[in-house]
Amino acid sequence: MNRWTRLPILLAAVVLHVALLFTVTVTTQVRQQREDTSVFKIVDVEAFVPPPPPEPEPEEPPPPEEEVPIVVDEPAETVIETDEEVPPPPPPARAAPQPVIEFLPQHRISVPPRIDQDTLASRIVYPTLANRSGIEGVVYLELFIDAEGTIHRIDVLREPGYGLAEAAIAAFDGLTVTPAEANGIPVAVRYRYPVRFVLR
């Protein structure tokens, strides 16, 4: 055989060797990869239910508080005996009920109460504010006068202000008048009375 005939055979042999070597190398790598793979196991889900949590440890009760002793004073054992009897305490004083006074309206009396004009005028003090401002006017009062001539209450019906009503009420404070009469008998009455304030 000549040299040109051997060359294709030699090339074919080399190609076969290379192909055989490649096949052996690939097969070995595949086997190694298969040996390295992990094995998975299909398991029922209930097998992986976590266990119940552990029960908490019971807490220790707090230490008892110290009890504070309560000291009670004992009554005195010494008793002093006497022959004298202790009288019971007097009952509480009760205020005498005030009699209800029926004040007649002014139209039911026959004689009006009499008020001394000079005494009343001497008791009136003109308010400073009204005096400086030059205020004059009339204060209309309703006097509640009993059958003895004592004034029990004073209501202001109308007044101009500036302290004139207060001055009129103060003038009647403690003043006793002649009581009104109905058919000759002194009676209690509601009597309207004007007090006029005039600057001089």
Describe this entry's structure for a reader.
The structure is a single chain. The protein is α+β, with helices and mostly antiparallel strands and 200 residues long. The protein contains 4 helices and 5 strands, in the order αααββαβββ. It has helices at residues 3-36, 117-123, 128-133, 164-172; strands spanning 137-145, 151-158, 180-182, 185-187, 189-197. The strands form 2 sheets. The chain has a 3-stranded antiparallel β-sheet, covered by helices on one side. Strands 3-4 form a two-stranded antiparallel ribbon. β3 (180-182) and β4 form a beta hairpin. It is elongated, with a radius of gyration of 63 Å.
Explain the layout of strands and helices.
Elements: H1 3-36, H2 117-123, H3 128-133, E1 137-145, E2 151-158, H4 164-172, E3 180-182, E4 185-187, E5 189-197
Antiparallel strand pairs: 1-2, 1-5, 3-4
Strand content: 15-25%
The top level CATH class name of the domain at 106-197: Alpha Beta
- Roughly what percent helix? 25-40%
Mean pLDDT: 75
Q: Structural class of the secondary elements?
A: alpha+beta
Question: Radius of gyration over alpha carbons?
Answer: 63 Å
| Largest sheet, spatial ordering of strands | 2-1-5
Secondary-structure element string: HHHEEHEEE
CATH architecture of the domain at 106-197: 2-Layer Sandwich
Largest sheet: 3 strands, antiparallel
Q: What's the CATH topology label of the domain at 106-197?
A: Fusion Protein Consisting Of Minor Coat Protein, Glycine Rich Linker, Tola, And A His Tag, Chain: A, Domain 2
* Uncertain regions spanning at least 5 consecutive residues: none
Number of strands: 5
End-to-end CA span: 176 Å
What is the global morphology?
elongated
Treating each run of at least 4 consecutive H or I residues as one helix, how many helices? 4
